[in-house]
Description:
Rossmann fold, UDP-galactose 4-epimerase, domain 1, 13 strands, 15% strand, binds ligand F7E
Amino acid sequence: MSRRRALITGIPGQDGSYLADLLLSKGYEVHGIVRRTAIEDTEHKLKNLRHILGQIHLHVVSLDNVLSMIKLVKDLQPDECYHLAASSFVSYSFEDEISILNNNVNSTHYLLAAIKEFAPHCRVYFAGTSEMFGNAEIEPQDERTPFNPRSIYGISKVASYHLVKNYRQQYGMFACTGILYNHESPRRGYEFVTRKIVSMAVRIKLGLQESLQLGNLDAFRDWGYTPDYVNAMWLMLQADLPDDYVVASGETHSVREFVESAFSYLGLDYQKHVKMDPKLFRPAEKVRLCGNPGKIMEKLNWKRTVTFQEIVKEMIANEMKIQGNG
Ligand code: F7E
């Protein structure tokens, strides 16, 4: 039997790289879409893929060019497509709202249309987010909770979610949305709060820096472990029927708790170093996001394997390895 072929948009990111690891371990032929700038600077832009560069196939395709997307889908005939690429840093979406909305929605639409026409057997995963719930009235949120996005990023994901649902219902495509809550790992980008905290805490420990400025320490998030979450993506495409699922830990922790744990692993008292900076607060932020993963646990037998404390510990250990030797 020939190897199953997967196409991943956003393959260089945290999620894309762990998903590529998972699919390779399952024997897939793995293809990824990257920007030209990534190929020109593999050292930095493809650092999450360094260990598997010889085992995957990369294609330079612009997600805002429908013709190049059609060509790739037609030539490749993927069995599974994971659409992870997006402008995903919520804060930027308050500054660059027009292009973020256009890019995130159009790329999803182009991909769905290309697959419908030229590779209709292909199963599609779309990366939704807890930001779709925004200012949710109910906690925890699940698949029936009404969306109330409070950022352009969240709005772009709600619009794309409806596109996915429409292609599923109108054209019979096997297309699913995973509504994923925050998920972290040593490969998280430095702009996100968990990586910022661990990298700065380690700098403070090494005497390279005195203090750390953060936004709202009393924001609550539902934090999970990225390898568990890419496993959820894969499970959705192996199901008998396409559907949408919330993927979350079901626990909520404050940014302050994350800070406290990270600093205490390093033997530091966070109160001596961490300062809140009102400039880093977000407009209109809902402070408690917490998901109910009951449906995916019951229907697809998904479970998380790593706790909040273990995530903090692994991220600190990795950062010590990088900075301690650097
Ligand atoms: O913020 C607060 C901030 O930027 C987490 C993305 O993957 O998950 C991620 O979105 C919390 C927020 O992630 C700072 O206000 C405090 O409450 O790490 P973050 P995010 O915005 O929750 C969702 C599910 C996605 O889909 C997104 O793509 O931390 N916070 N102080 C801070 N956040 C940052 N970045 N920097 C601070 O100094």
